[in-house]
């Protein structure tokens, strides 16, 4: 069941491909839980228009980036990771 989250995470892996007029970005992000050494893994999917004349309000995701995510929808993936999707 989807819910909303707010967190700061580190992008450790990034790949993209072109599909149906959009660039589909897939990234893996991590955040530290509380003040412990436990980490939460995020599987992130973002869709960017290939046509640069179309408006896009989502900044490009890059490997090594630190992102602040707020009020985003997510669902539980496999092996305890969270799946987050972004659309323009």
Describe the secondary structure blueprint for this structure.
Layout: E1 3-19, E2 22-32, E3 39-49, E4 66-76, E5 82-86
Parallel strand pairs: 3-5
Antiparallel strand pairs: 1-2, 1-4, 2-3, 4-5
Q: Just give the CATH class.
A: Mainly Beta
Instruction: Give the overall form.
Output: elongated
Radius of gyration: 13 Å
Major sheet strand order? 1-2-3-5-4
Strand proportion: over 45%
Write down the oligomeric state: single chain
Task: Report on the architecture of this protein.
This protein is mainly β and 88 residues long. The protein has one domain (3-86): OB fold (Dihydrolipoamide Acetyltransferase, E2P) (Beta Barrel), CATH 2.40.50. 0% of the residues lie in helices and 62% in strands. A 5-stranded mixed β-barrel has the order 1-2-3-5-4. The chain is elongated and about 45 Å long. The protein starts with a strand and ends with a strand. The model has no long low-confidence stretch (mean pLDDT 82).
Give the key terms.
5 strands; mainly beta; 5-stranded mixed β-barrel; OB fold (Dihydrolipoamide Acetyltransferase, E2P); elongated; 88 residues
In brief, what are we looking at here?
Helices cover 0% and strands 62% of the residues. With 88 residues, it is mostly beta strands.
